[in-house]
Amino acid sequence: MKHVTELGKKSERDKRRLIASAFVFLACYALVLLVVLLMFIVNDPSGWKAFFRQNSSDVFSIIVAAFFIFGIGYFYFYFEDREFLYKLSNVALFFSVIIFSAIICYIFGRFVSIYARPYAMFALLWLFLKNRRQALFLNFLFVFLMFSIDLFGNNIAMTAELVYTTMLLGFVSGTFAVFVASKVKNRFGLLLTGFLLAVPTVLIIFFFQIPNKSYNWINYVSSAGYQILGCIVSSVCAIAFMPLFESIFNRLTTFRLRELTSTNAALLVRLKAEAPGTFNHCLIVAQLAESCAVAIGENAELARAAAYYHDVGKLKQPDCFTENQTDYNVHNELTPELSADIIRSHTRDGYELLVQNHLPKEIADVAREHHGTLPIKYFYDKAVRYSGDADLKDFSYLGPIPQTKIAAIVMIADAAEAAARASADRSPENVEKLCRAIIEERMDLKQFDECDITMKELSIIKMTIVEALSGVNHHRVEYPEIRFNREKQAVKTEETDD
């Protein structure tokens, strides 16, 4: 009954979110129309009123066309990615990128050349801010929006042939950009993408101008040159303005993930200085998580970043965690209940610290979820031995359990690294036994019930961690310890284990 009630509340909450997103869509649609109006005013500052009177039917066509374009966009998200609509910041991001890209395209088309429009900029921005699938579809909507403005409201003396040519250039450059740039991992690679985009678009201009009776090489070279400029500007603008959208909407991109995993990142510098044991533990967990993410087809960059930051909550009281202690253990002077509370609070503290430092929610969520609702065995056992009885809830993490496969990967990698480090036997057979026990225990405690991870993926994760830890903890040969003086004479020989 309780489960049914919770589902009902969630359904009601989701309906309210969808209604709110629909109203935000309409408000942003009105904002787009306002931007189009400003374009007309800039086109003819003194005669824009007369333009509206004389072309009222065309203006109405733009209003209707834009309404259907954004209506299609809304229903696309509704049926394909409803979670997108639940967050109003996503809707704001969508329209911000649309409006910004339309303004940049208008500026270049109005004051440089219609061929210089950086059509691919929208597709590139959305590719890195969200994903390839959405970028492909939404690029068509963006191009249709610009086509509607050109067809019904442009007064820059564009011929019908030129309107359709630019529409095709927008489709091709945006679609080609998504496929070419999908594997790009650095900003320089994104810049090179601009040059590659010019290849198909220049060919399109050539084949469109060939049948033209007034065709000449000067016009073609001029048009092709502007088109190459537009493709390069698409990449440059995407590079220049992506950090702006990353910052305002707190979005994760491949570039930002790499910046966050740099050892110069502020929180990682603190972790290295104040909790060196935790920092080294995070480095190994990050390697394991990245390998596991690659093995099951998840975002390896995100897995590595989440693992780097999963234990930053230990910065609050670093000396209370074993990996940062030397000879003195503060828990020897504390009650088991207080010790357990300190240990389990690091997930909540990590989440709060990451949010305060404006790190992406995806990374902060992993910091909070990577222990799920697991019991803290050591202090629970200690409390039972002291008092004879203890409430397991007082010795368990507060959750929530992992909501994503990345969080599940970090949960397993974190426990496997700690278990292997504490074990005297680090052979592949023993490491495999440890990993299997870790995964089975978490399955028994229903830690993976909300992250959609499969048995096959858990098996792959286990084998990947075993192989990786076997490489880290490989057998070392025994070296004879021989010390030499300056004359390179052996002064002491003794067998020792390095």
Q: Keywords, please?
A:
mainly alpha; Arp2/3 complex 21 kDa subunit ARPC3; Hypothetical protein af1432; 2 domains; 3% strand
Please characterize this protein's 3D structure.
The protein is mainly alpha-helical and 498 residues long. Helix content is 71%, strand content 3%. A two-stranded antiparallel sheet has the order 1-2. It has helices at 2-43, 48-54, 56-80, 82-86, 88-111, 120-129, 132-153, 160-181, 187-209, 217-249, 254-260, 266-274, 276-296, 300-309, 336-356, 361-369, 377-387, 405-422, 428-444, 455-472; strands spanning 479-484, 490-496. The protein is built from 20 helices and two strands. The model is unreliable at 493-498 (pLDDT under 50). The chain has two domains: 2-250, Arp2/3 complex 21 kDa subunit ARPC3 (Orthogonal Bundle), CATH 1.10.1760.20; 256-479, Hypothetical protein af1432 (Orthogonal Bundle), CATH 1.10.3210.10. The radius of gyration is 29 Å and the shape is elongated.
The run of helices and strands is: HHHHHHHHHHHHHHHHHHHHEE
Number of domains: 2
Q: Quaternary arrangement of the chains shown?
A: single chain
Helix proportion: over 70%
Question: Biggest sheet, in brief?
Answer: 2 strands, antiparallel
Poorly predicted segments: 493-498
Q: Could you tell me the strand content as a percent range?
A: under 5%
Mass-distribution shape: elongated
CA-to-CA gap between the ends?
A: 61 Å
CATH architecture of the largest domain: Orthogonal Bundle
- CATH class placement of the largest domain: Mainly Alpha
Structural class: mainly alpha
**Which whole number gives the mean pLDDT?**
87
Number of helices: 20
Rounded to an integer in angstroms, the radius of gyration calculated over CA atoms is: 29 Å
Describe the strand arrangement of the main beta sheet, using strand numbers.
1-2
The CATH topology of the largest domain: Arp2/3 complex 21 kDa subunit ARPC3
| Count of extended strands | 2
